[in-house]
Structure formats: C-alpha cells, structure tokens
Specification:
The radius of gyration is 21 Å and the shape is elongated. It is α+β, with helices and mostly antiparallel strands.
C-alpha cells in the first residue's frame, strides 16, 4: 500500500483546480496545465485539498496510485511556484549565449550547437558558463535540461562538460608512470 498516495495535496490560494471526465486542470500564476487521470482512481477536490482515491479496494496495492498523486502534486507546484534547473559548463572556451529562441553553445567542437528552446521553457544565461532553465512543467524542463547536457556530458578525468549545479562528478586518477 502506498504511503505517499494517502497524503492529500494542499492547493495554494491563487491556484484553482477543476476535475472533469478524468482530466484535472490547474490554473495558477505560472500558467495552466492539465493531466489525464488513470480511470482506476478518482480525484476528490475540497476547498484547499486534493485527494487521490482508488475506486476499488484492490487498487490500493497498485503502484500507479502513488505515481498519480505525485504527478498531480508536480502539476500544482508547477502552476503555483514553477520549477528550475541550473546547468554549469566547465572547460576552456565553453560558453553559452541566447539569440532569440535559440541557445547557442560553444563546447569545443568544430561547430557551434544551436538548440531551439521550447516556448514553455524560459532560459537565462547570466554568466557565459551558467544556464538557468525554468518552467511550469517538470517533465519538459527535465527533458530540455537532459538534452542540453547530452551535447557534452562531464568526463571523469578533468571534469569538463555540462553538469547540473548540484551534481557531483566522481574523479578518476590519471595514468601513472
């Protein structure tokens, strides 16, 4: 039985939620998002709380119950506060610049990489080697951050590459004589 799914989700004051035909729609100051709810579960909306309840008693052991509750919690946090990720670039000559809706990356290749940013994601390049991504959809934000990181993953010997700001790169020792 899921321990996470039993907990109710608190709705912030400026956020409104509607549940209709197994679709939950949330509106807040960061925008509007919707999610399809699995037909095995029902969503109970009260004034300031949301609870996810299984329709049958046997579905209390289904792991999708906790996953559904986590998706709804991410949806509500996304429309009220939003999410953000920070990427750091380590390496000689590695830099990033924004030009319109494209992120231009110089990562030591013979060519520059132009990455088209989706419209739901906001990008800030404060320093040349720091990229801050923010948005209301946690799934899309993580996918964009992973795509940018995949252009030059950090290597274990010198630590060059693109890494998350809280990521630890395990360093290996070089060749010995």
């Amino acid at each position: 039985m899921s321990r996470i799914a039993k907990n109710s989700i608190t709705i912030p004051k400026e956020t409104t939620c509607n549940f209709d035909n197994s679709i939950l729609v949330a509106k807040g100051k960061m925008g509007e998002l919707s999610i399809n709810i699995n037909p095995l579960f029902k969503v109970d909306l009260s004034e300031d709380k949301i609870s996810v309840l299984p329709k049958n008693e046997k579905d209390k052991k289904n792991p999708i119950w906790g996953t559904t509750r986590a998706h709804i919690a991410n949806l509500i946090q996304g429309v009220s506060k939003g999410f953000s990720k920070t990427l750091e670039m380590n390496g000689t000559g590695y830099r990033a610049t924004m030009s319109g809706t494209k992120l231009k990356l110089q990562l030591g290749y013979s060519h520059d990489i132009d990455y088209e940013i989706p419209k739901e994601i906001k990008v800030e390049v404060s320093k040349q080697n720091t990229i801050k991504l923010s948005g209301s959809n946690k799934e899309k934000l993580g996918a964009v951050a992973a795509n940018i990181r995949s252009f030059r993953k950090p290597e274990p010997f010198k630590g060059k590459g693109i890494k998350y700001d809280n990521e630890f790169i395990f360093r290996k020792e070089g060749k010995k004589k």
